[in-house]
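Reminder: ligand-aware prediction takes two inputs, not one.
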Amino acid sequence: MAILVTGGAGYIGCHTCLELLDAGYDVIVIDNFSNSHPESLRRVMEITGKKLTVYSLDLLDKKSLETVFQQNQIEAVIHFAGLKAVGESVLFPLSYYQTNILSTVNLCEMMKRYDVKHFVFSSSATVYGIPEQVPICEKASLRANNPYGRTKRMIEEILRDLFQSDPNWSIALLRYFNPIGAHESGKIGENPKEIPNNLMPYITQVAIGKLQVLSIYGNDYPTRDGTGIRDYIHVVDLAKGHVKALEKMMTTTGVETYNLGTGKGYSVLELVAAFEKVSGLKIPYKIVERRPGDIAASFADVSKAKRELGWVASKGIEEMCRDAWKWQTQNPYGYESRKEQ
Ligand code: UFG
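Here is what comes back for the chain with UFG:
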């Protein structure tokens, strides 16, 4: 019996594969490598000393997808595959709806056909949009304000409908806050293809000299220092959360949502300060206009995950910075051995 991980070569996917292998599961990965690199999976095998099976295919290709279900005894699915850039989703909404929603429908159809009904879905705190209050609990209203976030919200609804149609399904909807950091080995980590949109990889690329200066998007938010507050979570803690959710889904039926965060918020300036402390470097920054669509503060109420999954994030902000920096310094060009021209 094996766990199928879609998008398993991506940032959160490969860290989760590693935790699954360490926990003794057989792992099968499907990835189309559109925004990921097979090297991440090779390194997961190197770190764990265990093998996983990799299929290079697209979930929109139903025929190939079916062969994976025919060739393997799949017990449960963790579904990461999908497009994930907020700004890009505003420019190309149709490709987000096509890729994220249709691929999930195909996957669920195949699961239904092969009677695989344990499902863990990679959702996002972005489904909350501008929160009414912080910390955000799972019952908060869903007001995603961009196409990417709406695909996540719609998929959550599709999965609820699926459960309504057949109560034998067990589905966990995991709403991540802001994953950062890397595996402590420094061998796998976040590998943005272009100039990073997210704060942590931007900071590490400034630190290593690939980028000149960090732009901080606004210091006039109603927060303690005026910069945006987020709930940063170490990607290894997040990966462990998936294993906990999977274990729970194997023993129950139903649809449950879980916030995966630390429950603590840090401002942009606080994250910069933590990174400077850990690395011993100064990060040059300038304050610029707010980024459209950004919110002042977002952090999680994590009590449900603690209560029902027995999971809490254990790694603090300095460990997140240390591991992100280790990954960046050991892999200045990510998974490429040298800079692509
Ligand atoms: N920020 C900067 N400069 C940068 C990048 C970010 O000041 O160069 C600030 C942002 O304004 C924000 C904070 O740093 O206050 C975090 O920004 P990120 O882009 O790292 O993360 P977001 O919270 O905007 O979004 C992330 C993911 C989304 C996901 C969301 C979940 O990118 O995909 O978290 O809440 F949906």
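Residues 199-230+264-300+314-330 form a domain with the UDP-galactose 4-epimerase; domain 1 fold (CATH 3.90.25.10). The CA atoms of residues 333 and 341 lie 11 Å apart. We will return to this case in the review session.
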